[in-house]
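Limitations
The structure tokens in this dataset are predictions for the assembled complex, not deposited experimental models. Users should treat interface geometry with appropriate caution, especially where small molecules or nucleic acid strands are included. An illustrative entry is reproduced here so readers can see what is and is not provided.
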Amino acid sequence: MKSFRRLVYPYLVWGIIFIVIPMLLIVFYAFTKDGNSVMPVKFTLDNFTRFFSDSIFVNVLIRSLKLAFITTVICIIIGYPCAYFMARLKPNSQAMMVLLVTFPMWINMLVRTYAWRGLLIESGISPEIKVYIGMIYNFLPFMVLQIYTSLSKMDKDLITAAHDLGCDNKLAFLKVTLPLSVPGIISGITLVFLPAVSSFFIPKLLGGGSYVLVGNLVENYFVTTGDWNFGSAISLIMTAVILISMYFTRKFDYSKEDR
Amino acid sequence: MKKKPFSKLYLALILLFLYLPIVYVVVFSFNESKSLTHFTGFSLRWYEKMFESQTMMDAVYYTIVIAVIATVVSTIVGTITAIGMSKSRKLIRESIVQMNNLPMLNPEIVTAIGLMLFFTALNIRLGFITLLLAHIIFCIPYVVLSIMPKLRQLDDNLAEAALDLGCTPFKALYKVIIPQILPGIVSGALIAFTMSFDDFVISYFVTGPGINNISTYVYTSVKRIDPTVNALSALIVLAITIILLIVNILPLIKERKTKRNEETI
Amino acid sequence: MKKLFKLVLALAMALGLCGCSGGNSSGNSEYGCDVLNVYNWGVYIGENVISDFQNEYGVKVNYSLFDSNEAMYTKILGGSHYDVLIPSDYMIERMIGEDLLQPIDKSIVDNLDNLYEGVLNKPYDMDNTYSVPYFWGNVGIVYDKTIVSEDDVKNQEWEVLKNEKYKGQIYMYDSERDSFMVALKALGYSMNTENEDEINEAYQWLVELDNTMDPAYATDEAIDGLIYGEKAMGVMYSGDAAYILSENENMAFYAPEKSGTNYWTDAMVIPANADCPGLANEFIKFVLEYDQSYDNAYTVGYASSNAQVLNDMVAEGGDYEGNDAYIPRQQNDKDEVFHNNEPVRELISELWIKVKNS
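Predicted assembly:
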């Protein structure tokens, strides 16, 4: 089985070339500043001090994390039962449901968000709720698909065994089904939480524009002001914060397996 | 089994939620006026405009070509990598997981600018190739992420048994592992296709003159209100409906065929 | 940053990392190329202009779109090759300053006489060496006559946006450039000021507006919103205002006279690294002709740079007969053209984030 280990090497090389190197470019920008004469390159922490010395930037980051967090939690709460029920349908209906859940995402996100804007325009719902509706709408399919994947083709004998050992439905679910679907939930969290932190079209369109999030901030510094250095720094800070939190989620996940 | 009506109702509600805005888009593609919020009368003018627009039709073509190639490549590479990862030491596995997270984690604009600088620094002219490469780059992580949970559930003993029974590793992979993780591969491929189909920011910065996708068109047009975009979306809905019908009818045809075969025997 | 970028580029080339840099396939037109790369705003061209040009010149046009001057600029900086761009005034000024553009070949573009004289010789490109105007206009307030009193608008000008009678009824333009323009003009300053105190005062003005008026920040979403009366007032570009007025007769447009406003132009330019400048010049000439300019103006609804088209649009039976917003006024000393605001760009950007977060 160890022979399979070699299978990762091509992607490792690919990843270093196309993911890590461009990322290093961003790191380089984050630690330098415009106005330096190009040689010698002067490394500086100015961009980072600038970020943390102004509460406005930190607030924006916290707000973005909060939005992503709540979106993720609601997606799990709504998505889990959906995935669970899907996994218990007949095989043909399952395939059908998977497609039905995926297809809305083929309509451009912007078009769908505009549609929500139109749908909600006379509803009198507060902008904040509108933003959450839009966010959940956009990310729910990812969560459902991931959880469903881990629930489908699950060994039914395990549940029967649990029943035989005297578990009722509830206990069997808690002791067998739920733990087995944890990897799926984690994948779902990754797919929802990470992109949600940096999303900004949806809040912008549905929240009446008075919403600055870390995604806007980075876009703004990269495109509008052309300050790639500060933009890179913001993105790096965000990456660090999220990677740390993901690390703990993952630790929780592996702790079960590596025991 | 007594819970069944509730589960059906729940699924129906979710589908209602997911398709509500889409129905709205389709309805407004028939709107007479430019408005995206007020329906003033029935007309097909946006469809006419859409089919007349060379830019739009080109965009549809490139979107589909790129999405299909990117999905196939990233699904194959992603599956192979995920299988390799599940057998790798923790350090390598962890590093790949983190590396994989980067494109998902970074705001798209960061990945976009990073790649643009990278391609230009290598003096590769921005265009179809760079666009395709970029899509493969950001699709693979989604595939890997979708397959990993399935691999964790996989019973290692199965593959070992296959090897003991004389299978080559490749055969064990093909006959034992792949079928077990198929749901993960399918959902990975679906997500990859979706991401490629819907991507704007990265595509925008790594593409060259004349190579646009639907998202680029939508993004630059919808801001100035262009209902042809709705017409285009309605067209995609039509395509989806056809796919759904085929998926539904195909098993029926198969069934009938096998039945007929049985009868002839 | 740009220097650094150029360095990376130079290094890569020096190291012989040259990949597949595609040249032009030998073309069949007299300019040695059969492809023209045009880069323009979304929904900003007549329905048939591209296809007509392709037929007449026997070349293929690659038509690409951008949604902001800055996004376009970033692409050019990233080494993309286009033949014709259509950016706004301040961006043209910036690109001229950075040697990113090449002069228009006036021996090919020999029909500049077609241009409306009001759009020529503006400060971003004093003698139109590099640019040929495409669309132009100003910025003002669109308001619902049945809700907002005309006197209020005309007396208070930009300050009407802070009139608490209309709380919750206004769209503020969601862009730092345009909203700071409004604030600076309301305070009687130049919109191109580099004086930090004035900019800070404008910031306070915007924060007050944000706190007291509960505005919705929007760009083009506001067009629909005003046509259907979701709000009573909004800051608008004249071209969009003309469209709103033509759809909803309750609406009126006013570009503040005493305080002045932004007088803008989007113009065609040819980047220095264009693959086919000859054909690019032919394209510009082609667009200046009556038929193409008319097609543009008819489809987009902005004020044409072609004098004849402009006249016909507001003449009896024209699309915009009697429409106040269509032809922007001329010769108001208070009106200004945006300059490239390099030194204060970051400051304004940061303040704008703060306004929206206040």
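Some entries come with short summary sentences. For this one: Confidence is low (pLDDT under 50) at residues 7-28 of chain C.
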